[in-house]
Design a protein that fits this description.
The complex is a heterodimer of chains A (255) and B (283). Helix content of chain A is 35%, strand content 24%. Chain A has 9 helices and 10 strands. Chain A has helices spanning 2-6, 53-61, 100-104, 106-110, 115-128, 144-157, 174-190, 202-208, 239-251, and strands at residues 11-22, 25-37, 42-47, 68-73, 76-77, 85-88, 162-166, 194-198, 211-215, 224-227. In chain A, a hairpin with a 2-residue loop joins strand 1 and strand 2. Chain A starts with a helix and ends with a helix. Chain B is built from 13 helices and no strands. Chain B has helices at residues 2-6, 9-15, 17-20, 26-56, 68-80, 83-115, 117-132, 135-146, 150-174, 178-186, 191-227, 234-243, 247-275. The N and C termini of chain B lie close together (11 Å). In chain B, 29% of the residues are buried. Classes of the chains: A alpha/beta (255), B mainly alpha (283).
Chain lengths: 255, 283
């Protein structure tokens, strides 16, 4: 048990490569990628458009297959999707015919719980994202931020070891985005989960992540890992925070 | 709720006084209540009144367009004497049987075909061809095959109702958001769960469009089916009354068909509201 707990949520990526075919020509997206995600850490993946960050997340989720190489979770090679992982997409992807509470309980129900059991457990996560007074609302009655909170609650409710987030706040307005970032930071502090966050927002990456993986745009380049060793809760205006942002901007040649 | 509150205070007090506060006088209260009724049903009432007046005053030939009171009297007499009840029963049985068969075959087949791309692609040209072939044109073929009795009548209605329903169901299944299916897969949902929890509920609104179209078609085809080789049924009564120059009875039968169509549609709309509460804006 203690050994299993030590590696709970550990992900190893070995010699991972993937290309797509575009107009009959292969287009490499990921090239011989090697790294480890530490158990319980928050890893952010950033990179320019076309750097393969979303593809990498989809391979981790088991929604895409790599051409070569492998992904190991707790020492075991993954094959397709698995219930130890949960994905939060850019769109909330709620089922319009289910109420908030039943959307949050959806993952629990597909994993074998009855509707009532699922509701009982889902209730805690609905409260966690602050939507208890909207339990019986339908998705079309929710704002964008509220809908995304439901999606987050649904993923947390199945108590995954690894939470994969694909630009989850990308479609939200600036104000909602900042308040959701604070909420995610709070949730990650309280829940025992390894998180992988794909984002194009550098500030979001610094605010939320323990480490940032930067994928190169040109496939000859090497990916880089940056440690963000800032105390939490983080403050965007501290000199250390600003220094990290400048460092990242420099890496993208934007300074 | 949303619309009235957006109106200016002036418009609110002018148009809808009865909704927001107690009426101070009866006049605006009645106007407020009557307004929506007039805008919704005013034209049909106007049409009926015009019919009655123009027939009574001889603006149109009253032997061909008898006044409404004669038509309603003929309808009432037919129903109260029981003469039309037999016709209603046999007509409902014919369209009901055909419609039920179309539902029993069309929806499962559509759900199956919509799911499997290869099957759908292989069958689509054939379906489009059948759909473009008028059921009425095929009626003589059905009579040759099935005889002049009940079977060919029910079958021609079934044929005509099957395709709207089948195509609507296939369309509904094909339109299901693949992102939702992908989401369900990440929670470990297998094909059966995905079908039951995603594909089926997502297709319900499209299936209802097909159901309503099919129900209307069933009643339309009824007339044609009962014009040939029938001695009972509402469609037969329309033809028979015309031959015998019982014009009010003819219109009474036509009116009856329209009412049946409205009733069938109302039942389906009600059922849809119950089943698809989630898809209504103000639900």
């Amino acid at each position: 048990m203690s050994i299993a707990h030590a590696v709970r949520g550990e992900v190893t990526i070995r010699h991972l490569s993937k290309s797509f075919v575009l107009n009959g020509k292969p287009l490499p997206v990921l090239r011989d990628l090697n790294f480890k995600i530490r158990p319980g850490e928050s890893l952010a993946i950033v990179g320019a458009s076309g750097s393969g960050k979303t593809t990498l997340l989809r391979v981790l989720a088991g929604l895409e297959e790599a051409d070569s190489g492998e992904v190991l979770i707790e020492g075991k090679v993954i094959r397709g999707v698995g219930t130890e992982r949960a994905v939060i997409f850019q769109e909330p992807r709620l089922l319009p015919w289910l109420t908030v509470i039943d959307n949050v309980g959806f993952g629990l129900e597909t994993q074998g719980l009855s509707r009532e059991e699922a509701r009982t457990r889902a209730r805690r996560y609905v409260q966690l994202v602050g939507l208890q007074s909207f339990e019986n609302a339908y998705p079309r009655q929710l704002s964008g931020g509220m809908a995304q909170r439901v999606g987050i609650a649904r993923a947390l409710a199945v108590q995954p070891e690894i939470l994969l987030l694909d630009e989850p706040l990308g479609a939200l307005d600036a104000m909602t985005k900042i308040s959701m970032q604070q909420e995610l930071a709070r949730i990650w502090r309280d829940e025992d989960v390894t998180t992988v966050l794909v984002t194009h927002d550098l500030e979001e990456a610094i605010y939320l992540a323990d480490r940032i993986l930067i994928l190169p745009k040109d496939k000859g380049g090497e990916p880089r890992l940056i440690e963000i060793d800032l105390p939490r809760p983080r403050d965007r205006s501290t000199p250390a925070f600003v220094r990290h942002r400048e460092e990242l901007l420099n890496l993208f040649g934007l300074h | 709720m949303s619309f009235e509150t957006l109106n200016s205070p002036l418009a609110t007090s002018f148009d809808l006084p009865g909704r927001n506060r107690r009426p101070s006088t009866l006049g605006p209260w009645i106007a407020g209540r009557l307004g929506p009724l007039v805008s919704r049903y005013g034209l049909i009432v106007g049409f009926l009144v015009l019919w009655q007046i123009s027939s009574k005053l001889g603006w149109v030939n009253p032997t061909i367009f008898p006044p409404l009171d004669l038509i309603i009297a003929a309808l009432w007499e037919g129903i109260s004497s029981g003469a039309l009840l037999d016709d209603i029963a046999i007509s409902l049985q014919r369209s009901g049987l055909a419609f039920a068969s179309a539902v029993a075959i069309g929806i499962p087949l559509g759900l199956f075909m919509g799911q499997i791309r290869a099957v759908e692609q292989a069958l689509d040209p054939l379906l489009q061809f059948f759909r473009q072939t008028s059921a009425l044109a095929l009626y003589p073929v059905f009579i040759l095959l099935l005889g002049l009795g009940e079977a060919s009548k029910v079958f021609v209605i079934f044929w005509a109702t099957l395709f709207p329903l089948l195509l609507a169901t296939i369309g509904g299944v094909k339109e299901v958001d693949t992102k939702l299916i992908e989401m369900a897969r990440t929670y470990g949902a297998g094909p059966v769960t995905i079908f039951r929890r995603i594909v089926l509920p997502a297709s319900v609104p499209a299936i209802f469009v097909g159901l309503r179209l099919s129900a209307t078609t069933a009643l339309l085809l009824l007339i044609a089916a009962e014009m040939i080789g029938a001695n009972k049924g509402i469609g037969f009564q329309v033809m028979n009354a015309q031959y015998n120059f019982q014009v009010p009875l003819m219109f009474a039968a036509i009116l009856l068909l329209a009412l049946l169509g409205l009733a069938a549609n109302a039942v389906l709309v009600l059922l849809q509201r119950k089943l698809c509460r989630w898809s209504q804006i103000n639900a």
